Amino acid sequence: MQIRIVVDHAVVTMTIACLDAAYSDTSASGACALCLTWDAAKPVRILTHREGAAAAYQPGSFYKRELPILLAVLKLLERPPATIIIDGYVWLDGNHRPGLGAFLYEALAQRSRVVGVAKTSFGAALSWCIPVMRGNSQRALFVSAAGMNVEEAARGVKTMHGQHRIPTLLRLVDCEARAALL
Questions:
Q1: Which terminus of the chain is more solvent-facing, meaning fewer CB atoms within 10 Å of its CB: N or C?
Q2: Please, are residues 18 and 172 in contact by the beta-carbon 8 Å criterion?
Q3: Closest CA relative to residue 85, chosen from 138, 152, 136, 140
Q4: Helix (H), strand (E) counts: the chain
Q5: Mean pLDDT within 99-117
Q6: What local confidence, expressed as pLDDT, does residue 48 receive?
Q7: Is 1 in a helix, a strand, or coil?
Q8: Are 176 and 46 in contact (CB under 8 A)?
């Protein structure tokens, strides 16, 4: 499914949403940047959602804290975008132990492809994710995916706008989610 909105009387089909969440002691927020292509420098639209405190962190169940916030910001859309990019893992190992992205993929009834872009390595075997080098950084991003081929997802992340390790739109949603806490 794709999102259709009107921008200056032209119909725009949204295909990609970058999502992130932020927390404080008293509130939680999520941000969504909608764009048309992997290499977009600027979003077509930014949405934020703020609510009361997030669920307490439970070791091994990180998704319970962040998933409700991501779903809440996605509810602001008419329907789910074709592709969602999150800060984190889709799979946590080669046996497809679910991470945040896999739980999001299932919560959306597999209607959107989900790409996880993690900043730190998780586990020794990388057969279930692909390290992606960006900019001049010597540190990889780790890409995993549900609903699409992980190689295709890694190519997309590699082409995302920005000269630095973290793509521009992922940095933007991080900042927007933090700003929405205030």
A1: C
A2: yes
A3: 152
A4: 4, 9
A5: 96
A6: 97
A7: coil
A8: yes
Here the tokens at position 155 are: 């190519």
Query: Which ranges constitute the DSSP H helices of 92-149?
Result: 100-107
CATH number, domain containing residue 70: 3.30.2170.10
Instruction: Please report, as a single letter, which amino acid is at residue 57.
Output: Y
Q: What is the pairing mode between strands 83-87 and 16-23?
A: parallel
pLDDT at res. 47: 96
**Cβ neighbours of 71 (radius 10 Å):** 16
> Per residue in 4-52, pLDDT tens?
444 444 444 558 999 999 999 899 999 999 999 999 999 999 999 999 8
**Sequence letter at residue 65:** R
- Please name the residue that has the structure tokens 């962040």: 66
For residue 38, the tally of other CB atoms under 10 A from its CB is 20
CB 158 within 8 A of CB 134: yes
State how many domains the chain has. Answer: 1
Contact 101, 114 (CB under 8 A): yes
Structure tokens at 70: 């991501």
* Domain encompassing residue 143: 3-180
Q: What is the pTM of this model?
A: 0.89
The residues, ordered by sequence, that sit 6+ positions from 59 with a Cβ below 8 Å of its Cβ are: none
